[in-house]
Amino acid sequence: MINIIFAVFIGGGLGSVLRWLISLRLNNASTPLAVGTLTANCVGAFIIGLGLAYFNKATHLDPVW
């Protein structure tokens, strides 16, 4: 159980720092759309999808994991 908590902690921390850095780089005060946050969320969702596809094919874990 502690390994799962630690993995969520590390993943959440890395994701939030990367989102913040991308937002600093891409968000502009003159645009109403937060392009940096949108980009970070789309890239993050893509990476999570790649990870799920890899672990589904490479391991015999239950899909719930």
TrEMBL record:
It is found in: Cell membrane. Its main location: membrane. The keyword GTP-binding does not apply. It is a multi-pass membrane protein. InterPro entries: FluC (IPR003691). GO terms for cellular component: plasma membrane. It comes from the Bacteria. The chain crosses the membrane at residues 6-22, 34-55. One of its GO terms (biological process) is monoatomic ion transmembrane transport. Keywords: Cell inner membrane, Cell membrane, Ion channel, Ion transport, Membrane, Sodium, Transmembrane, Transmembrane helix, Transport. Belongs to the fluoride channel Fluc/FEX (TC 1.A.43) family. Important for reducing fluoride concentration in the cell, thus reducing its toxicity. This is Fluoride-specific ion channel. It comes from Xenorhabdus bovienii (strain SS-2004) (Xenorhabdus nematophila subsp. bovienii).
